[in-house]
Amino acid sequence: MPAILSNKPYRVGRSRTGLGLFATRAIKKGTKIVRYFGPLLDSKKKRDDAIENKYLFELNNRWTIDGSVRKNIARYINHACRPNAESDVKPRKRKVVIRAIRDIEPGEEINYDYGTDYFKAYLKPIGCKCAACEKKRRKKRAEARAERLRLKAKAERKALKKAEKEAARLEKEGLKLQLKPRLNGKTTAAKTNGKHANGKHANGKLGNGKPINGMHLNGVRSNGHGRAAAADRKLAAAEPKPSLKTKPSLKLKASLKPGTPATAIGGDQQASA
Which runs of consecutive H residues, i.e. helices, occur in 221-273? Predict the structure, then answer.
């Protein structure tokens, strides 16, 4: 067991994952920080091979260090995907030393990469909580928020555009409704029920009583002589019918002498009447 000097460059403190190892002073790149130690386990022995915990450090296919003992200060070093230290493994000496791979500032947490097998077995199911992964997750969350805001703004713009389009359509329909007739569907120039204001029906009839296609409004057919026949009937109805009293008798016509003036005849007829 290595001696722990009083002037050790690290201390155990609280970190985001529990306990961690922090630098108490500046540590230069390449400096050995602490040794990872514990009982050696032989995989050929069933008793040793049955031991299972999170602090087993495998040196090779046969030998493994059980670092679960409390005196192993290196067990407090947490995993990091972008570490500031690394494990220097010496299988022949069955020894592991943690070495700085860059300058470490005082108060900075010391960490190293546990390896792919350990990460998949213990860290991936719960998620890595190192600074790099937290930063990556924060970035992803920020990107997701930005994407949600972008989609929300896009949806709002689309809804606004749709509303403006709908408002324009309703306004256009309102103008059309204002131009439509409001008195029984009639306009000043034409009727919407198929009749014109000039008297012509949509079915081929005139509103003034004139015939179209040989038909009056009262149903009397006109074949070209309808007007003359109607006029003759009107004249005939207007003229008085001669009565039997006004007709000159045959005896009076026969008794007329040649040379008798017509006025005399007319006067005789009136007198006889």
Answer: 226-238, 250-255, 262-272
Tell me which fold the domain 10-129 belongs to. Beta-clip-like (2.170.270)
* Sequence-ordered list of residues with C-beta below 8 angstroms from that of 64, at least 6 positions apart, any chain: 40, 41, 43, 48, 56, 57, 58
Sheet with 10-15: strands ordered across: 10-15, 18-23, 109-112, 78-79
Q: What is the 3-state secondary structure (H, E, C) of 93-157?
A: CCEEEEEECCCECCCCEEEECCCHHHHHHHHCCCCCCCHHHHHHHHHHHHHHHHHHHHHHHHHHH
Q: For a pLDDT cut of 70, what percent of the chain falls above it?
A: 63
Alpha-carbon radius of gyration of the chain: 62
Q: How many whole angstroms separate alpha carbon 119 and alpha carbon 80?
A: 10
The secondary structure of residue 226, as a DSSP letter, is H
Q: Pick left, alpha or beta for residue 140 (phi over 0 → left; psi -120 to 50 → alpha; otherwise beta).
A: alpha
130-134-136-137 Cα dihedral, nearest 10 degrees: 140
Question: How many angstroms separate the CA atoms of 66 and 175, rounded?
Answer: 88
- All structural domains of the chain with their residue ranges: 10-129, 207-238
| Cα 227 to Cα 269: distance, rounded to the nearest angstrom | 37
pLDDT, tens digit, 9 for 90 and up, residues 201-256:
444 444 444 444 444 444 444 444 455 556 667 666 665 555 544 444 444 444 44
Residue 130 burial class via C-beta count within 10 angstroms: exposed 0-12, middle 13-18, buried 19 and up: buried
pLDDT digits (tens, 9 = 90+) for 262-273: 444 444 444 443
| Residues in Cβ contact with 2 at an 8 Å cutoff, skipping those fewer than 6 apart | 35, 37
